[in-house]
Design goal:
single chain, alpha+beta, three-stranded antiparallel β-sheet, about 180 residues
């Protein structure tokens, strides 16, 4: 399918098409709902490689079928596609999907996610001892060093974004004023 500009529209990937990424996205969505409960779950979106030269340049001409992105339920996404070689191990798949999800959330929703509970800074996906984790760069104090904020899929809900805190504060003020 094409949009009014003649470019391909993404299609939602069906469960089981990319099982490694399906499992990874389920864990990433758990983290999303822990800190951003008002947001709908993210989904996998597929697009054909376009133009075909890009696939050939990337050395994937034999698999030049489609590229997969992590997107919002409305079919929008941001950032690069999930690298095909990330399906090699579950840990690689989880880190790649988390990174793609973070790009989409940050750029389309203008929301830093996930946030380190200790430093209130955005965390980034990576690995520690082969385990997929969310890393925090630490605070402003030089003694605050980089640390693991949480395993991917196990982010805690104790951090509430500023928008949620403002909404709650407004509700408290209205209830006290009545």
């Amino acid at each position: 399918m094409y949009d009014s500009f003649g470019t391909h529209r993404p299609r939602e990937v069906q469960p089981g098409e990319y099982p490694e990424w399906d499992e990874a996205l389920a864990l990433v969505n758990r983290d999303l709902s822990a800190q951003l409960p008002e947001r709908d779950p993210l989904c996998l979106l597929a697009l054909p490689y376009w133009p075909e030269e890009e696939a050939e340049e990337a050395g994937e001409a034999e698999e030049a079928g489609e590229c997969v992105h992590v997107g919002l339920p409305d079919g929008t996404w941001h950032g690069n596609d999930i690298p095909r070689n990330s399906r090699a191990t579950p840990a690689d798949a989880l880190v790649a999907v988390a990174e793609a999800a973070q790009d989409t959330v940050l750029e389309l929703l203008w929301q830093v996610w996930p946030v380190c509970i200790e430093h209130r800074l955005g965390m980034h996906p990576g690995k520690e001892d082969g385990r997929p984790v969310w890393w925090c760069a630490g605070g402003r104090d030089p003694r605050d060093t980089k640390h693991v904020g949480a395993s991917i899929g196990k982010v805690e809900a104790t951090y509430r974004p500023r928008s949620v805190r403002r909404k709650e504060r407004g509700q408290r003020r209205r209830s006290q004023g009545q």
